[in-house]
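dumping this here so i dont lose it
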């Protein structure tokens, strides 16, 4: 393990300490878990962006064109009265 010295606002340290106490873990463990979670989210975002750059709308549409044009099974249908809002 490496030691890391960081500066955080006092209010944030107090909030983190309160969460750590509530969860019955050390502040070090809470910060390590939070950092790991955030780093993995950033890595996943980067991975998805890279995969997206490799994609092709034309290939995607070609795959969709192969799907049969049939009604979905009951469990895949949208609820009665469903309306897409944006």
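and the seq i came up w/
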């Amino acid at each position: 393990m490496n030691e890391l010295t960081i500066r955080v606002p006092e209010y944030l340290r107090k909030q983190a300490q309160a969460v750590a106490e509530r969860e019955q873990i050390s502040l070090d463990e809470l910060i390590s878990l939070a950092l790991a979670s955030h780093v993995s989210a950033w890595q996943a975002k980067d991975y998805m962006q890279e995969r997206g750059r490799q994609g092709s709308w034309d290939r995607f549409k070609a795959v969709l064109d192969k799907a049969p044009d049939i009604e979905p099974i009951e469990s895949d249908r949208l609820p009665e009265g469903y309306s897409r809002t944006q």
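The radius of gyration is 23 Å.
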